[in-house]
Amino acid sequence: MFYRLSGIRHTSYPAARQLWPIAADRWQVGLVTALALAAPVLVSDLYLGSYVLPWLIWTAAALSLSLLMGLGGQLHFGFAAVMAIGAYSSIHLTRAGVPFEFALLGGGVAAAVIGTAFGAAALRVKGLYLVMATLAMQYLVDWVITNVPAISGGAQATLRTPEVSFLLLPLESLDARYYVALLWTVLMTLFFLNVKRTSFGRALAAIRDKDFAAAVIGVDPFRTKLMAFMTASFAGGVSGAILAFCYYGAVTPEQFGFNVSIQLVAMVLVGGLGSVIGGYFGAGFVLLVPIVLTNLIAGLAGAGWISVSQNLAAHLPLIFYGGMIIGFLLFEPLGLAKIYDNIRKYFLVWPFRHSGS
Amino acid sequence: MQHDPVTARDPRMLHPDWKPEDTLIALLARNAREHPDRVALRERDHGIWQQTTWAEYLDEVLSLAAGFEAEGIGPGDIVLVTGDNRARLYAATLGLIALRAVPSPAYSDARPEELLDQMTREGIRAAVVEDQEQVDKLESVRDRRPELARILYDDPRGLGDKAPAGASALSDLLARGRARLKAEPGLRDDLVSRASVFDIAVLLHSSGTTGAPKGIPLRHGHVLSGVRNAAAAGYFREGEEHMAYLPMAWVGDFSFSIAAAIELKFTVNVPENQETALHDLREIAPTLYFASPRAWSAMLTRVQVGIAETSGLKRKLYDHFMPFALKLEREKLEGRSPSALQKLWRGVGDAVIYGPLRDQLGLRRVARPYTAGEAIGEDVFLYFRALGLNLRQFYGQTENCALAVAQSSEDISLTTVGRPFPGVEAKIDESGEILLKGGNIFDGYFENEKATAESLRDGWLCTGDAGQFDADGQLVVLGRLSEVMHKADGTRFIPTYLENRLKFAPAIRDVCVIGKERGFLSAIVCIDFSAVGQWAQERGIPYTSYAELSQRPEVVDLVRGEIARLNAAVPAELSIDRFVNLHKEFDPDDGEVTRTRKLKRGVIDARYGQIIEAVYEARDEIEYEAQITYETGETGVLTRTLKIGDLKGGQH
Q1: Where are the transmembrane segments (chain A) (predicted)?
Q2: Which terminus of chain B is more solvent-facing, meaning fewer CB atoms within 10 Å of its CB: N or C?
């Protein structure tokens, strides 16, 4: 209805690959960007700090994992550990006096090095076996962090993030932390959008679809898989560091446990493998829906609309949440991104049923 | 101007107001000078639009001209140009014009014999063609036209080093021309200034339905004056996006894609090929769009098919908003303007249905959509106007660059073709023929004094069309003059005019209007079996065959309604008073119509004489004994009772 496709023509092949050739997509992206920039003004601090901010950071983390799982087809069930490496490394680097900007990079590099070492397993194994290998990484990293006091400060300790500033902007106020997180998520989004159009992105897709077929057409599986683990781990490490500095303010090993890894996988799957908008939808769904459901049921019970026991009221949101995940995946196995895509296409061919008529 | 064009053939005397240096080539050079970087041509190649600026366009034209000259082509030489629309063919046409040679376009689907006839008639010795297909056609008749020495082709696919003797690629010629331009410094300016406004810019051809096609030479001055008249009346604007997809041999394409494009700095967009033209149209979204009534009608069908298979909500919205817009458009034609609420609701419809539909068709930016060539169906015309397109009709012939008469935005009507352009005069002579006069009227047929004398009288072009002016001075085209008939009281009528208007009704497939030397007009109607069959099904009217369906009282009433609608729209003396539904369709195998479904009146009059007499004897029905020839050659007789419908209450 609001998509206008006539008059879109390309005068060169590079121009034909532009990200948003349709005007309606451009103004939608522009609108969302403007809303994101104005969020500190539009949204109360409570909502900004406890909903929007974590949503953005987890989106960046989900996109990092989606790069590996969605584009490269490499399963990873220990991604929380990768984030933990980034978080702890950057905290220790800033404590050692390294500026925050470099500490972020350092955290990313540390995560990339360790993540790639474990990713090397992917050169030999695939599918469930790779899941096992990455699970091993999750537990090994957890164990090391917990049991090496030099890293965690002791098994029960909480490591506070030091006061830092990013590009001369002190990271004390919520707004400053929000904008740093927004910057990183936007960077991650742009990177993800563009990597699909590069030779690396295409090599990843080839590896995902059939690695030995890709090898036959000249894509080096060794190099490409390691690159995939390295890129995703670097991005995951930085996301972990941002999570620690901009949201948590203090880290404990439990914040990066196995269940967090599973949540990340859920974000990627529910959102839609290898999709940018899926990353946003998936993180939003996994993160915000349980909260919304809890508030809703508590509100309903409080107002006397439904009568449930205290015990059931605590579990009802989880029941609905689980049901919704199953429902969505049954209804559209390709995730929320596919649902969005279907809606977009419905309007794209408006008022016809399909294009080419 | 009182010169007889047959004797005073010097164009300088015929057109004293033309300035010699006012040529297409000079205007092209002006564009290249004033807007060197503006896009002049766009051609789709493997999905990518290759752009040519005005400076590059001029350079290509002059290089090709230099190349042609090196090949021995010079002033007055007639050169065959044939193929689908290609940017390089347009440049080659202009290159020939720069050399004062005469491009003679032929339709890309012309048969080899037709090309041979054209080459023999016009003494053609060189040809510029699109691709291997055209080269092969020329090659097949080359033994009968040995004078054809040079064939230049644009697309080398399938030719390469297998090209026949004398055939070479235009790209090689272009390279040689470029080298020449570089080597001879004064050549560029010389080539730009050679042509004169009195030169023949193009040699077009009449359709040749009767006898051999006649050559129609148009001079620079003719096409430029046509274009300027049209621009003065606002039919073209400067810098239009134009889609060049109609055949290059058709006068409209020369007028639009070459003359108007150069004079008014259009961007001319050439589709990848004929099959992708509609898709490419959407990529371009032109601002000026010209299509035949048949093409508009095909577009309407496309929309209807798309809507028929679309999903619930979309169809519901369409089914609400489209009839609403049609109703408003109909009221507007009747002179009633919509209320504020209706305007608001139309705005909603524009956002929801009309706008998206225009976008789907690639007509989102079209401010000036036109149709010409034949009468456009009322439904089609109204539909696109309701969709928010200012669709208007043109009237013209090759002889006047197809730029003579058009409807203006203010007074659209279903029956007229509008008013003459400024600079064009129109009048109706005593025999009812439309005569036109103006700078865009040609000076005479190619080497055909007799035809010239018949069509040009004292500077007036006899169009061969019968017409009249309506009350507000708009021209109404009735049909070919050769088809005019008279009733017994001398009233003039043109059966095809009435027939065409009746045939716009979906229920009527064919109709033959009778009334020559009779007291009143009557019609033999062949219903459209599929449309009326569908109509009958929806209403639960039983029938077994065409013959039975045609005689159902409901169907007779349906046809009566359609005729009554026509009668209301035409002068009283042209109303059809009685009609009969025929028990069969007119069939080319029975000789009643030609293969292109044109009526053969003599056959119909003879075969259905019995029925016609019954109609004029004021009877209510007739027992008709139909002669039937079986496939075995035996003949039999079938008796049918045909009902005769009356619209005047039987006072005849």
Answers
A1: 27-49, 55-88, 100-123, 176-195, 226-250, 256-278, 285-306, 318-337
A2: N
